[in-house]
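Action item from last meeting closed. Structure (285 res):
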């Protein structure tokens, strides 16, 4: 038995077609959604991600604005770029590509983003809204994971979900999303202090691996038939590798592979956040 593949690319394409219609409807109301990216420095991986986001925008009809700053940019220069986008009516949503070069304080930059223009859902006010259950942009990777499971009818209500990693972009907000009443999962958040990781994983109906450790999840780590989502990404000499050992495909019931699973969904959810923010702005106008 081999796992059913949770195909993030195909699902992303479906979502893009849905978004294109919503963007057309916004344009008919005189609103043009525009996504901006702020990229600091010349990390090739970050450049590739940002290029991909602009390509995605073109596919669904969202305008895009690129702000590229040199690796030598000061904290004040990055904050000035954020202030400019907050004031720019052509920018309805934006993100600051992470990680920032080490000497810059990412927390202060994220706090400065206008919560109404936060495409990532990582601005502290929006993380607070997530905790409170109030509407707002949702963190893209967790939202992409929930959306992928929903579209393949993988049940979450009452399910035991083990999440490996408590990072701010994936694991911790995913725990918050999955424990909403609308999802109703029971979540175990695992990290380096977890005493017996495999014991937690074997209890789970759904395993989400977001640690950035190649081979962390193996066939004997999971309950046979479980849904496994590979989120972690590690750059090696052989290319990008996930957290899930390839043989796990034979034991899992569902597998979101890396590449081709959660990554494309993350990008789709970024654009969904931008479209939703533009719709909220149009409703207010
Ligand atoms: N596919 C996609 O769309 C995306 C993928 N990613 C990838 O997902 C991964 C997680 O991202 P992010 O949350 O930002 O990363 P962080 O580095 O912030 O978090 C990693 C987490 O994994 C935990 N961890 C590390 N090693 C182990 C281990 N051996 N056992 C158990 N837990 C462990 C850490 O525990 P502790 O807290 O104790 O240190 C930490 O909580 C990265 O590989 C990143 O590249 C990120 C965003 C999008
Ligand atoms: N402010 C901010 N927001 C982010 O959402 C953000 C960020 N910073 N910094 C980096 C991480 C990482 N991330 C990914 C997005 C898409 C893929 C993706 O599309 N991956 C493809 C493979 C990509 C490839 O082959 O290069 C896949 O999994 O199929 C991966 C990773 C978003 N991040
Ligand atoms: Mg063990």
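Sequence:
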């Amino acid at each position: 038995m081999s796992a059913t593949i949770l195909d993030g690319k195909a699902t992303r394409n479906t979502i893009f077609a849905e978004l294109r219609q919503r963007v057309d409807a916004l344009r008919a109301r005189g609103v043009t959604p525009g996504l901006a990216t702020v990229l600091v420095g010349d990390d090739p991986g970050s450049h590739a991600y940002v290029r991909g986001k602009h390509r995605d925008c073109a596919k669904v009809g969202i305008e895009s604005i690129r702000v590229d700053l040199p690796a030598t940019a000061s904290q004040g220069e990055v904050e000035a770029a954020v202030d400019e986008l907050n004031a720019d009516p052509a920018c309805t949503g934006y993100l600051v590509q992470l990680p920032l070069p080490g000497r810059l304080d990412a927390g202060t930059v994220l706090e400065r983003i206008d919560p109404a223009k936060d495409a990532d859902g990582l601005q502290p006010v929006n993380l607070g809204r997530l905790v409170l259950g109030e509407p707002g942009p949702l963190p893209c990777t967790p939202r992409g994971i929930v959306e992928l499971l929903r579209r393949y009818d993988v049940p979450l209500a009452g399910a035991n979900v083990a999440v490996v990693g408590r990072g701010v972009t994936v694991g911790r907000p995913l725990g918050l999303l999955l424990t909403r009443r609308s999802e109703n999962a029971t979540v175990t958040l695992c990290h380096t202090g977890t005493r017996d990781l495999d014991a937690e994983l074997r209890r789970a109906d759904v395993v989400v691996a977001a640690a950035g450790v190649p081979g962390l999840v193996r066939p004997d780590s999971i309950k046979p038939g479980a849904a496994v989502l590979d989120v972690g990404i590690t750059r090696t000499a052989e290319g990008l590798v996930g957290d899930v050992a390839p043989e796990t495909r034979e034991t899992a019931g569902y597998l979101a592979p890396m590449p081709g699973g959660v990554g494309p969904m993350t990008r789709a959810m970024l654009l969904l956040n931008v479209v939703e923010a533009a719709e909220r702005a149009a409703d207010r106008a």
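Note appended to the action item: The mean pLDDT is 97.
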